[in-house]
Design brief:
Blueprint: H1 15-34, H2 40-62, H3 67-94, H4 105-115, H5 120-129, H6 132-164, H7 167-181
Length: 182
């Protein structure tokens, strides 16, 4: 008989979670370096980044009993990262700094550095030394990566739900199977 509560969690292994978590960690560093700690923007950016991470985790854990909740929370994570992306774009625009084209050499180099699985402390160390323009553009690359991965994750969750159904269907099917055994 199929398990009523399927394996769930495992979010720490998801590239979307890892990217969002790195975005959160680097957002804290960015905000502490370049945005007044007493400003609402500082708090909003840190909370948007945190929300991205926390909603991925919560959605993954909720997936055991609610595919609807998993889809919703994964979508909320992506929306939180979109809010964060806009904050970084606003930061550049309001300071008259250049926004990198996504295909510029700088953006390609940043994406390569961010996707490198080598020593992650190297990334935060170099980030701590970069200018505000480089730091903000690097964060835009990272947030776009996390958002892209979440979009792909949402598409996979949708396909899986359409193929396998959700918890309520499993409950019904297993109860039906038990009843027919009697």
């Amino acid at each position: 008989m199929e398990r009523l509560i399927p394996p769930h969690g495992g979010y720490r292994k998801l590239r979307s979670f890892q990217s969002a978590q790195l975005a959160y960690d680097l957002t804290v560093i960015f905000c502490d370096r370049f945005i007044d700690k007493r400003s609402r923007t500082h708090d909003q950016m840190v909370q948007a980044a945190r929300s991205g991470v926390q909603n991925i985790a919560e959605g993954s854990m909720a997936s055991a009993t609610s595919k609807k909740a998993e889809l919703k929370l994964t979508g909320v994570a992506r929306a939180s990262l979109e809010e964060l992306l806009l904050d970084y774009e606003d930061f550049l625009r309001q300071r008259g700094l250049r926004l990198w084209d996504k295909n510029s050499k700088e953006a390609l180099d940043a994406r390569k550095l961010l996707s490198d699985e080598s020593d992650k402390s190297d990334r935060s160390d170099s980030f701590k030394q970069s200018s505000e323009e480089i730091a903000a553009n690097t964060m835009i690359c990272l947030v776009n990566l996390a958002s892209y991965l979440l979009r792909k994750q949402l598409q996979a969750l949708e396909r899986k739900f359409l193929k396998e159904g959700g918890f309520t269907e499993r409950l019904y099917n297993q109860r039906w199977a038990q009843r027919n055994k009697s």
